[in-house]
User: Fold this.
Amino acid sequence: MSKKSEFIPVRLSHLLRHCSVGAIVRGPDYLMTVKDTREWTDRNGNPAGEPIRYVDGVRSALGIEQELREPPVATEKDNGQVEGVCVPALRFPSWMYCPNPKCGLLHYKPWRGLSANEKPRCQKCENKPKLEQVPWVLIHAEGHMADVPWHWLAHQNTNTPTQKQCRADWHEPYLSLKDKGATGRQLQCEHCKATSVFNDDIKIPYTAWRQPWIKEDAEVDKDDFASVLEINDARVHMPQTRSALVIPPESRIRKGTVVDHLYSSSQKLQMIKNAKLPLPRKSVLRTIASDLRCSVQEIEDALKEIDKGYPLYGQNITQVLTQNGWVRKG
Ligand SMILES: [Zn+2]
Ligand SMILES: [Zn+2]
Assistant:
């Protein structure tokens, strides 16, 4: 894998729409897909974005237990170094093709082993043209996405025993995709000469991973089909966004107090929760008390407040989730 990373500046508003999780985004050199928030972490694997506090109403309206966080922010210095944590993305689709119409060889992750500035090229063609990523992906209605299974497609109508036994090769290019004009695109295996016609919008069984970056099999109905779609097709990515208007219960929030600090630090609360025996617990409380410049008793009192339900104290604030997704608290 090439060590060089590409960076794309993204606005927050774009991160919620056409650059959101699972979107395919064009970088300076490659198309990429945005990984999900579980991977928006720092080097130690901790969530990198700043937590958003006092949004319990929004969380319950969304039906989630997890903390809400802002996306991480990174800055690119003049020397090309990056400070901070980036929103991670993955080169995708993984297949590239030779643009020479007489060749059309498909290459799987041809960037593997290349140095920083090297571009993948077709070695079979005399002028070694630069490869281009294939513009198609496999999309399942449940939201799963995968590379088009080119080997499977080429061999779906096999006749001879040689063709039936032909196995995928992930290193040497052996499949070609050529535009035959009126008869459509022809997909061929150079090893066994199995041939099939390739058109957009074909439907095939989905047997792939849940997402390009989630290497777990997707649980889909065996009779269900996935569609091969062009990446700019609107059906490839449909972000779901909800807007929430948060009016925090200001009167109940005691800004700057021990209870506020403790409530706002999931790390500290977790430390206390993990220290179950009296001695370790005492030591954790002392560390936190010294950190917050207060007494251990004040920490105990603050914990009681949080246990009682600070800052909402069980008062279920009316939530109206209207059709356009506004959450109202009041
Ligand atoms: Zn070529
Ligand atoms: Zn074959």
Residues 95 and 269 are 46 Å apart (CA to CA). The chain has three domains: 12-91, 95-230, 250-323. Residues 278-291 form the longest helix (14 residues).
